[in-house]
Amino acid sequence: MALSPYTKRPPLAAMAILFDYLALSLLSTAASAGYILSDAGISGGKDLFGEVLRDEAVTRLNELGKVSDADGYLERTFMSPASVRVGNLIRGWMGDAGLRTWVDQMGNVHGRVEGMNASAEALLIGSHLDTVVDAGIFDGSLGIICALSALKVLKINGTLGKLTRPIEVIAFSDEEGVRFHSTFLGSAAVAGILPVTALQISDKSGVTVQDVLKENSIEISEENLLQLKYDPGSVWGYVEVHIEQGPVLERLGFPLGVVRGIAGQTRLKVTVRGSQGHAGTVPMSMRQDPMAAAAELIVLLERLCKHPKDFLSFDGHCNDISVESLSNSLVCTVGEISTWPSASNVIPGQVTFTVDLRAMDDMGRESVIYELSNQMYQICERRSVSCVIDRKHDANAVICDSDLSTQLRSAAYTALKKMAGEIQDEIPALMSGAGHDAMAMSHLTKAGMLFVRCRGGISHSPAEHVLDDDVWAAGLAILAFLETHM
User: Distance between CA atoms of 117 and 123, rounded to whole angstroms?
Assistant: First the structure.
């Protein structure tokens, strides 16, 4: 098997360091010669379905990647014109796979096949169709396309109707939370955890979630929002395929990995208000500058997240186990900052910035927020500015269902064995530092995830890349998983 042009297997010691840093858990050392698939590395066979699972899937991913609300880069936010166009494309491909389709009142696109028993508990497979700003083409879209490709193979084989349970693919309308700073709008509605107040969240233009749905001819009220929740008794489980967004699978030389769990996350919006004034006439000693205060707050955040042991005590808010976990997994990001009135010759009157905080340990994450808030308020008081910290999003860490993970691991093994021959090592299992729709769906049913290798671990960037044959491997794994439901 040819090696990938960008993958070099590191020594085991280097991998161990990487695992400690990322708080990952592996099922085996995966030390033998790698199962690395290149774009030209497989001759293919009649049971590999390369025309559908690779060629057509890659073509569709590239087609989705061209549908954007921006010129020159990829951007699709909740119910934007580009998102609606992509939803229509996906709905057409669902029909091509033999699925009955519809769009719900949160803009999620559904495709379903009933199989032999329409009243049986359904398997849900999903991911999101929205993107970040200046995105890559695989984040979200890959999971939708792989599922549809696998189902299309069953249709071609004449076995789609032999499924023992309904299978439903869902393209969620919002996972990234770019437009309304509230992630999982689509999957949270299906899972029944989206509060009715979410309908009144507004974007930068003052347009609410309810407004933008109405603009797209979707009437939604508090009552029918609650009706979007699936009955837990009607659902067997939820599966999601997603790019890893990290470097571990590439380091190990594996196209696929099983996800053990997902880090919890909190998003904050910090607003600092001071005294607006002329840049040339207010003495430095008399200023109440929210920009300088915000800069100090951001540096505080960085220090705390780099060295949580220096800030957190072993008390009622945290214990030594949580602190140790934070040292390995805590990450914090300020990704957006804005000022008012935002002029070069004006001391701003207000500065607003976002905080994205993630950790594997929920208790530890709460301890960080508690300590961060206390110290932020102290800094603002010392600088004579006001500080308001709003929690915009919270999601607890999720542990994937062990039985479902075992089935996905077996399916991934089957796929790689078909493609690469004998497999000696077990499929890796790892934790996810990125949030996924599976976090919301875990409130409804058991959840499992399959990761797909991406080049350099790069994501949320136009440089995001997945080998064609890795797309193929993911589709073949989902096909193998679906065949266990026949």
Answer: 12
**Spatial contact of 283 and 256, defined as CB atoms under 8 Å apart:** no
pLDDT tens digits, one per residue of 152-163: 999 999 999 999
Residue range 111-170, pLDDT digits in tens: 999 999 999 999 999 999 999 999 999 999 999 999 999 999 999 999 999 999 999 999
Which uninterrupted H or E stretch holds 469? Answer: helix 468-483
> Rounded to an integer, what distance in angstroms lies between the CA atom of residue 256 and that of residue 253?
9
Strand-pair partners of 170:
110, 126
Query: Cα–Cα distance between 408 and 345 in angstroms, integer?
Result: 58
List the structure tokens of 107.
């803009």
Task: State the helix-helix crossing angle for 57-65 and 81-96, rounded to 10 degrees.
Answer: 160
Predicted pLDDT at 395: 83
Spacing of C-alpha 315 from chain mean position: 33
CA-atom Rg of the chain in angstroms: 24
Average pLDDT, the chain: 89
- State the burial class of residue 55 (Cβ atoms within 10 Å of its Cβ: 0-12, 13-18, 19+): middle
Q: Hey, what are 365's tokens? A: 């994450």
CB 259 within 8 A of CB 450: yes
Helices 320-329 & 12-22 angle (0-180, nearest 10): 120
- To which residue do tokens 């214990």 refer? 319
- What's the rounded Cα separation, in Å, for the pair 295 and 302? 11
- Cβ 434 vs Cβ 245: under 8 Å: yes
Please say whether the beta carbons of 78 and 174 come within 8 A.
yes
Element of type H or E holding 191: helix 185-191
Task: For strands 447-452 and 235-243, give the pairing.
Answer: parallel
If we measure between CA atoms, which residue out of 126, 127, 123 comes closest to residue 167? 123
Q: Which residue has the tokens 């109440």?
A: 288
Q: What's the rounded Cα separation, in Å, for the pair 31 and 177?
A: 39
The whole-angstrom separation of Cα 178 and Cα 123 is: 28
Q: Give residue 55's pLDDT.
A: 97
